[in-house]
Design a protein that fits this description.
Elements (H helix, E strand, L loop, with lengths): L3 H32 L3 H12 L5 H7 L4 H13 L3 E6 L2 E9 L1 H22 L5 H17 L7
Antiparallel strand pairs: 1-2
Helix pairs in contact: 1-5, 2-5, 3-4
GO molecular function, one term: DNA-binding transcription factor activity
Keywords: DNA-binding
GO biological process, one term: response to stress
Amino acid sequence: MATNIHAEATAFFRDLVHVETRLYNALDEHLRERHGIVTSQLWFLQHVRDHPGTRVVDLANEFVAGVGAASKAVDRHERHGWLRRVPNPADRRSSVLELTGTGRELLDAAEVSCGDRLAELLGGRDVGAAAGLLADLRATLGRDGVGTPAG
């Protein structure tokens, strides 16, 4: 028989995944309808904007994905005209990513729209405690390499 802490942890995890899935799906639908993108694409663009000098491997690390998957995602963003690869000034054998003008415009509009929809979905709830807990868990799991893909 599971102890109370096991039951609480299991219920917490189930609720976390359920809520995350519903919010993610709702944001995907909203962004797709209004901007022709999905949440993961918004996050890629945000990361490139917020971290000058981002390389494909940096995206893979940030989004806990394989380098090959991150590279293919960057290829898709390039085809849409949202990102471009430029020579890495620190190492000419590699490239860094930057937003195009089109990518910046898309990101600016999508961030406002996404923020409005997320606020609507959260319905004015105080998410501070949950945000703190999740940030702590994310940092701990990342530091310990828990759930990191092999490739």
